[in-house]
Fold these 4 entries.
Entry 1:
Amino acid sequence: MIERLLKLEDAASESVFLWGARQTGKSTLLAALFPGAIYYDLLKSDVYGRLMSKPALLREELMLQDQSRIVIIDEVQKLPALLDEVHWLMTHTEFRFILCGSSARKLRRCRANTLGGRALKNVMYPFVSAEIPDFDLVHAVNSGMLPRHYLAADPWKRLQAYITVYLQEEIAAEALVRNLQTFSRFLEVAALTDSEIINYQNIAADCGIGASTVKGYFEILYDTLLGYRLPAYTKAMKRRVIQTPKFYFFDVGIVNWLTKRRNMLPGSGDFGHAFEHLIVQELFAYRGYNGDKIDLSYWRTASGYEVDAVLGDAEVAVEIKSVSEIKSHHLRGLKAFKEEHPEARLIAVSLDAAPRLMNDVEIYPAQDFLRLLWSGEIITPAG
């Protein structure tokens, strides 16, 4: 079994929330880290049924248990009423809870008890390169990094099933949208604009719905952890900068399936788009596993200069190009950024054969960059 980076060390002394999109490996992680925990799985119909009819059963059952044991409630968003019982138990007993789920949306929507800050938030991401021995970059670009997909020789059917289950269990079952067919069309259009600046009007026109509905659909993706906003870096020195965020799905494999990208090889345009997404996906995970203490943004000027990722307060600027050799014209965005922010460290991530320095720009093959990232040599939370 692949060892995950997330260790939930806070659970040794605190109660925690563990959020993560479906199939990121939350349940597998909890079973590995806490084999002696008391476990309530709300996906089991019998467990869900009896606790739904009487949430107080949770308190009554636990009062006869050893209070040094951790209590795990999986898919907690399915039964928000349990959180009142959890709150009471956290206040009056020594139990520590791990509350696991794929979305906090339902908890907020029904104004559930969110425990007043008594449970620390953790987020689980798909696999990252640092977790995988003999990491295969080309396979990751094609399959994505969800565990079941990356470990499959051909993940295509699993990707299809993933979207189907998401629509049925996250969207339809929770009645998050009125028209499932329209939302399915929105997913396809959103995938076509993945890694681009969000334009609600254009997406609305393509889907045949209003811009306000599109905004609501994006909020659903954020709340169910299926997508991320990448904000713009907006500190302007000389040039006027774009301030609209970009959108990324949480895993490149999902985008591949929605856009019907298959069997991509380096050198193709599709591979280039997916390659950029994968690197940014790793940056999102690195930030998340470091407590969201590192700012992550992109930079683009009104005149068209762009940098794919800015880390910290202009500490590191990263350009991502799936080319076998970085050349001077690939670095125009980084050079423009350096004029605005002369102290920035400039990095280009590519398919170059070996690391090298070109003027002021550090050029790294993707796997070298990812190794340096996860070893803390690109940026650290304190940096």
Entry 2:
Amino acid sequence: MQADDFGFGTQIRKSPFFDATVRWGAQGFSVYNHMYIPRDFGDPEQNFWNLVNEAILCDVAVERQVEITGPDAAKFTQMLTCRDLSKMAVGQCKYILITNADGGILNDPILLRLAENHFWISLADSDILLWAQGVAVNSGLDVTIGEPDVSPLQLQGPKSGEIMKALFGDDIMDLRYYWLREVELNGIPLIVSRTGWSSELGYELYLRDGSKGDLLWETIMAAGLEFGLKPGHTSSIRRIEGGMLSYHADADAGTNPFELGFDRLVNLDMEADFIGKAALRRIKDAGVSRQQIGLIIDGEPLAGPNTTFWEINFGGDSIGKVTSAVYSPRLEQNIALAMVSAEHANIGAEVEVVTKSGPIRATICERPFYDPKKQIAAA
């Protein structure tokens, strides 16, 4: 199949790695942040095993960067998020929530601090570039906000460290979890971070020159050959096992951090003001009416992830919805993330999930489902 065989028109952008992914077997794409993202390299279960046993390379250029610079960059960036950034060092990354005036989540990106007044927001699927530029207009702060020529790849899995060592030398092993480093690889300018959307040991390589996308992809694949590296896509199985959010599925602008159990990402006591602070204080004081839970769903293995929200019933009443569901071949269970009314968020309770095949029994459980303390990724 040729790269030109894929397409909805010129309004959907192609990443610098697009042609390479097609050469390496990408068979299907979806759209994320107005760009194509590879979602099919064959069997998704095999992609999962490649990830957890060896390593996969994923084109995640759809994680667009919002670049914030200028004398007031740090102050402005803090305005956007409820997480306290006062102790964030240059070279550090943080998982943050961007909230609106009602305390709703607009995005759950990774924030990278490249310099004292230089930040990247590495986005989930929503238009935060426009939000940030709009906020800046009336902020009175001296900032410049734009989208740089930056496109990340994810190298994820237990062999990813060995591959990084082959590419960059032993020094790269000193890179700590959620920290970044500016590097060059055969003349290719990069930022490398120990982050990723997999809950496995992993790295993200942020290409800073789109013309070198093909060269970077082929260089990494060549270095990874002896370690079993495969081309791949972000694994729904692994991210649900790890309890990782998919924006628009598990959270949206109508979801607040407390419903997700993200109290640790909200600091209402910091001196700095941020958008949504007053609303989040009211929500915390009143208590939430919904909570995210985990579910083990009975029955035969699900054929694939759910493509609609499944209703959850208890005692004949609707109490919530399944937001992300999948069969985990490792756990040999159907697992799901769901949002239910707080009064019914009881571990061990049995509920009914209404799938397209009909109602199925399910049990409320803790999440994440695997490696809850993130020991694998942080090792």
Entry 3:
Amino acid sequence: MAREKFDIIKSTCIPIAIDNNNTDNIIPARYLAFTTRDPKFYGDAFMHDLRYDAQGNPVKDFVMNKPEFCEAPSKGVHEIIVGGKNWGSGSSREHAAWAISGYGVRVVISSSFADIHRNNLLNCFVLPVIVSPEFQQELFASIDADSKTMVTVDLPSQTVTNEATGHSEKFEINAYKKYCLMNGYDDIDYLLSKKAEIEAYEQK
């Protein structure tokens, strides 16, 4: 999955106001049988059974198919999802994080996450941001009023800002994961970055 370094992300958002949006919604179980790691393959499967009916036709009323939200994520456009509470509940399938990353989303904002899914997102270079339920609902309201509402997620300062209201909240993140996201490192990359220090220590 993409390892683009994190700094400040300012983007419009896709509001997926589904509480307990489980990993089977995020990516149906049948996709777990595939061995490909092609990001587009899993991105196309993101929320598949809510996006499409049994005949493969887009479900018009589903938020991701509405004209204002159907554009694929790109720089400053739909890089952020605002989700319902307890995002990523259910099975621990890593494919759910692959699907979100493969779709092009870089940040998921919710009032709560399932712990394993939250860690899977971080491992796939997607930033899970926990905000208060009140701030979450304010974001939904702002996006409902104007689909072009911009939200700024500042990882260095650990703040998320609703540009429509000017309101901000701080969010927490593990210091190691923050460092890795800001440098585009996975765990192996991090160890390799310390190679000289490790070798110097071994020589003592």
Entry 4:
Amino acid sequence: MKRHRNLPFFVPFAGCTFRCAFCSQEKITGRKDPSPEDELAAFDRMMETCGDISDSENQIAFFGGSFTNLPRERMLRLLRRAKDWMDRGFAGSIRISTRPDCIDREVLTLLREYGVTDVELGVQSMDDGVLLASGRGHTANDTRAAAALLREEGFRFAGQMMIGLPGSTAEAEVQTAKEICDLGASEARIYPTVVFADTPLYVQALAGRYTPLDNLTAAKRIVPCMEVFLERGVRLLKIGLQSSDSLAEAPFGPRDGSIGELAAGMLYARRIADAVGETARGRSLTVTVSPRELSKLTGHGGAALDAICAAVSPASVKIQTDESVPPYLPVCSVG
């Protein structure tokens, strides 16, 4: 089976009619809106450098803004160029990200015509109070309506959610994860709220009206949301923001670009402790995971291993790998 690979092209701020309290797309993506000619040239360069396409199923992905709320000619210009590359065999489909209130049947008809199969919705929260405090400009019902329309029109739906938004709680975030599953999402992303210097949230933080999460707290809040998605069979595409100089320079919030690995390590520690319980106390514990999952147990200074030792007190812990072990389902044995 060929591996799936996204070919991401960022359209920062594009199409956004609201400036959310947390949003600083230029900081996150490091890009500003180009001219039409420069934008298409940049897209072509991205496609030209995508490498060998014989061993992968490529999907063009327009990220960074509300794609379906772009000026119509700009949206169609990008879709036409993407379709040209698809017709040449460089990709099989397109994925876009957008706001829940920027979806209707007309735009979905256009998207389908150009080969879009996957739509990522910036859900962020299903709590109307949190959405209002965050300046999102849409409601939870807008998300419910958009998800229903995507299902009716045959699109796959991915839900993007955030933890640590103004007014949010751990309980509200778990409920958001549950509702994303209930709405029929097949995939999800979980992002922490990071405070950038040029945002309304930065002003609120300086005034003491908003308290940012630290890395450890954010990771702990992510874990139960991960569990919801994993238990419901929803694929986790991404946890945390991509590491960058801009992220590291953010004045407040969980700025660790590997926060997803930290949260995953916590989840592994919890699942291993639940699996072996008291039976591992004072005995040797062997944990088998996929090679691709190894860093989640051994990274962050061995925090996950420390948590396992604190929870079940084994005499020793041995970590080994096996390609057949699924993610987040460690095989444990006690000797």
